């Protein structure tokens, strides 16, 4: 599990802070949030893909954690518990958003190679937003936040194999969105750079004769 | 013999999700013997490495929690903890998550002075809104002095029939929950649904020296200060500065049992049509910031 962030002024560890919070120490929970705020924010922002949604989700999650801290049993790390609440709040919002009619997201431009790492990061961020929420959440935890698969499985409450599957399928979809892999079942007309020599950042590796499975993830 | 490749299944294989399952051997056999699967496998392995490299670039980007989000979370937790938090020396609240426990409230003396300054700034902003509304109205609605809710505005002499310039003000007595705020009706209140309250015309918002509006008679006692035009303008100015948009409804009510002014914003975050509900306590607007926020959420 990823450890506490820097700058902790309180010598107590996370578990001790949780016990203190349950015992009525009103500073304890604030100290927990101070320690982990940047990681929790990054998870919320990257999972929702929207600053306002992330702020709302984080606020809801931390209020929920504050109220239900006495239910924390200590069978997982405090950070795992906090991340679980934050990710679930994000996924709840994403699912509600999916239920509403939305304007289709713009496709990633596969014909222009990003010139800087920053630009690449922005393109990847945009592509990540187009993944199904479950795949996105798994990729955020494992590939962006650096959680081991086992920890991500605990955060999301699923089996490790499910996390592997969501990450693998999510990366395959990203590969298509980012132009590293040809769209499954696509004809050249749907992807004009597939057989041409238009500059691409990837070379657009072929996966001819492929199609997605019936389900978007395990 | 060749067959179409199920990319999800192949991705599971490449990603190790099939390890130890019977399907692992089946996919391995296809990759070894079927040219289509073999080609797709090679392409996916190469693409997977590129995607991982791209993700590493994104992962390397620092994402510190922005100050405004930090302040908002801190305020929400302070509100959740309720009154009576033992304040350390220096006036810091007991539950700030800001670095060093920095206060999100300001001492009362400073707050009083700040309200006046912020009120003046807010008056300018609201005045601009009023002008915009007048331009909008004169642009094509003719002389019909009826709002979109089908009601005659309380102060038709302003000419501002635009809802943005004339937020509905009510004292519904509602004790809102977070869920109720996120599902707040975004259409103007119907004449039937409205409480017998007044509608605050732009002049009421602008005139910091005018007497408290009739909302004072129905508002919870703790919220009476926010019925003063100057204090209310300071509060709305602070909310608009943080979230953008314009207020379309104010309800002097409660949030989770505690007195709270509920403000519904339209165009929040500069996004047309995006609605946001904000619940604030009686100290809203102090110091030019939303210092007493209880909760905030997108609506709809």
From TrEMBL, chain B:
UniProt keyword list: Membrane, Transmembrane, Transmembrane helix
Disordered: where is this region? 83-106, 139-225
Report what the protein is called. Anti sigma-E protein RseA N-terminal domain-containing protein
Look up and give the organism this protein is from: Planosporangium thailandense
Residue stretches spanning the membrane: 114-133
Q: Where is the composition biased (Low complexity)?
A: 144-154, 191-200, 208-220
